[in-house]
Fold this protein.
Amino acid sequence: MLTFSATSSAFCLIFILLVPLAGAGLALVNSGLARSRSAAQLMMSSLCVISIAALAYFVCGFAFQGYPNQPAHVVMIGGKPWSWLGDGHLFLHHIALGGSPESLAALLGIFGAGLAGSIPLGAGAERWRLGAACLSSILLAGWTYPLFAHWVWGGGWLAQLGANYGLGQGFVDTSGASTIQGIGGVTALSIAWILGARRGKYQHDGMPSAIPGHNGVLVLFGCLLVLVGWLGLNSAGAMVWNGLPAASSVQVSINTILSAASAALAAALVTNARFGKPDASLTANGWIGGLAASSGACAFVEPLGAVAIGAIAGILVTFAVEWFEVYMSVDDPGGSISAHATGGLWGALSVGFFARLPAEASGAAGEAIAARPGQWLAQLVGIATLIGFVLPLTYGLNWLLDRVYPQRASAEGERQGMDLHDLGAGAYPEFVTHSEEFTER
C-alpha cells in the first residue's frame, strides 16, 4: 500500500488546498462570459454546487470511488477480476484522517468533485435554474464522478487493462484530464442539450448570433486563479494517485504552465489569423483547455512534450467552440464543453503518445520508459467509455431530473435575467444594465 512520509503528506496537503482556487477562477470565467444580468446567479451557483458536491461526495462518493487495494465490487470475466465499484464505508467512516494517503485522496476527491460540478455551469449559463444545478451536482458528485474515478484511480477495470489485456499499464490519468475535466465536460454537453439554446441565440436560418460576455477582465483574472489551482491539482494528483514524491511537483508545475501558455498563444494566433485580431474569450478558453490537457500526463512528459500537448489543445479548443456552436447548435456561453471536454479528452489521449511511464517491472525509482505498446489503445478505451457510456448515463440522469424538476428557467425569468429570477437582486444594482432586447426574438 502507498505510504507517505510526514513531509510528503504536508506538501500534498498544501497542494490540495490550492485546488479551490481553480473553482474560484472558473466561477469568474463563467460569470464574465455571461451577460451582467446573470452574473451574481452564476457566482452563487458556483458556491452552492461546490458545497453540495462536497457533501454528496462525503456521504457516498468516496465510498463508491474507493482506493486501490481496498474493498470493491468485483466480477470475474474470462477468469480475470474486473473491479466495477468501490465498497467503502459511507460518511468517510473508518478512514484515518491524519494525513494517510487514503485521507488525502478523500480530500482531493471532495475538491475534484466540486471542480467537475462547476464545469457544467458555464454551458447552462443564463438559463439554468439554481435549484436544478444543485440537484444535478448531487448526481455528479454522488454517482457519476466516483463511478468513473473508481475505474481510473480506485483500482477499477480501466486501470486493470494492462494486467488483464496487456494494454500498456492500463488507462493512465495523472490528475483528472478524463476523471475531472472529461466528466465535467460531458455533463456540460448533456446540460446544454437538455436546456436548449438561450432565447435569441439562433436566427431563423439557424445561424448563431453573437451574445458577448459582460466583463473580459473577470475572465482573464479568472484564468490566472485557475492556473494556481491547477498547479495544486496536478501536483497533488501526481502524489496521491501515482505515488510520486513531492519533488515531482517541480516537473509537474513546469509542464502545467508550459501547456497552458502554449495553448493560449496557439488560440491567440489562430484567432488572429482567422479574424484579423486575437479573440480574448477564445484565448481564455484555450488557456483552460491547455490546463485540462496538462492533467493527463503532466508527471510523465518532458517539457517539450507539454508544449506540444498544450499547443494542440489550444488549436482544438478554438475550432471546437465554432463546431459545437455552428454545426451542432449547442449554446455554450462559457465554452465549457470545448475547453474541458475537448481539452481533457485530448490530454488523456496524449498519454499514449508523449508519456514516459514508470518502469514497473524494474522497480527502479525514477526509471521510466516510453509508453508501452498498447498504451494508446488503453487511453482510447477510456475515452470511448466516457463518450459511449458516461455521456449517455449523465444525459439520462439529468433528463429524468428535468421531468421531475424542470431545469430551464421560464421565458420571463430568462428575459429579466437569472439574478432577478433566482436571487431577487442584480449583481450591479447601482448601474443600469442593458436589457439587450435586440437579441430576443
Notes: Residues 361-367, 437-441 have pLDDT under 50 and may be disordered. Residues 375-404 form the longest helix (30 residues). The domain at 23-439 is CATH 1.10.3430.10 (Ammonium transporter fold). The chain has one domain: 23-439.
